[in-house]
Description:
The chain is an alpha/beta fold. Helix content is 39%, strand content 20%. The chain has helices spanning 15-28, 45-54, 66-79, 95-109, 125-136, 145-148, 154-163, 241-254, 279-293, 298-317, 323-332, 366-369, 380-391; strands at residues 6-10, 31-38, 60-64, 114-116, 141-143, 179-182, 187-190, 220-227, 230-234, 237-238, 259-265, 271-277, 341-348, 351-358. The strands form three sheets. The protein has a five-stranded parallel sheet with strand order 3-2-1-4-5, sandwiched between helices. A five-stranded antiparallel sheet has the order 10-9-8-13-14, covered by helices on one side.
Amino acid sequence: MKLNKRIVLAYSGGLDTSIILKWLQENYKAEVIAYTADIGQKINKNKIIKNAKKLGVKKIIIEDLKDTFVKNYVYPMIRGHAIYEGVYLLGTSIARPLIAKDQIKVAKKFKAYAVSHGSTGKGNDQVRFELGYHYFGPKIKIIAPWRIWKLKSRTDLINYAKKHGITIPKDKKGAPPFSVDDNLFHTSTEGKILENPKKSAPEFIFQRTCSPEKAPNSASFVTIGFKKGDPVAINGKILTPSKLLEKLNYIAGKNGIGRVDLVENRFIGIKSRGVYETPGGTLLINAHRAIESVTLDKETMHKKDEIMPKYAELIYNGYWYSKTRFKLQKIVDRKRNKVNGSVKLKLYKGNITIVSRQTKSIAYSMKKVSFEENKTFNKSNVERFINFHKKKLK
Length: 394
């Protein structure tokens, strides 16, 4: 039977999305196109292709979006110093808009009437995906299996997989595993023991950082070069965005940098505890603030700090493509052309120290800050300055 309808599924090749794939075929009588965005996560392309073909899928699309992800999503966010609730560098949040955009592009190319994702009904990702879908394809139907199907438990999923001949990995047969999401920017781990905030995170869950205690006993040094607000080089060597972040992940990870254990407030109204690893991103956000400190004026820097919580919340909530985020991005980038130079960092057992900042910018004046007497700063004006602000106290 020839199927006239098509659905594009965000497909990882794992058990859950394989079950979703079969469920879509069964319940919608449509051709399912398996779509995977490679944004630097641990990916087994052969497994994805093999599992999809086994389920009768003819179109399997794996897009390499690593450089696009870092350049057009991570870097703008770093320029905004976006941190949600004081600690979260938004590693999962920033990946979803790109996947949604590219998935809709595929849907339009193959004239699919619907797109589908594997996000659960309690998480933020369903919102992020679907706001992205709506922005780029408002007329394309969205199918969210976890919100509508009758499979309510892990046992139901396993039984469904057995019934339809879907391979069940040994680690999936027992209790639900930790929920892990990763991309080139970060890794997040949730579930099981982590659901109890009184329990400490076991060391074995960490994937890209060693513990500070086991980090080298001697410090590492790294110099990050910036051009127009974006990192472009490590230790003087120009690198593509994805290679640069990959390199920083390795350097920071081996020095025990980038771990965060947090309880966050989800957009949909519940709290969630998770452990995030963002090694390279932690270096970037520290270095970027350091280079801005010697290249931007006070008003610009303070305005960025003022809007940052709102900017970060928009990203967290899935509003990357909103008019408000676009407006705030313009404020973030207003003087990015001035942010040029390099920052040298010292990394030691989970700690980051700014060693030096180098720039040709004249924003920082050696003459004005010198404690030696000079004519470039008129101290007689300070009294008038203070008197003016005394009046504002009333």
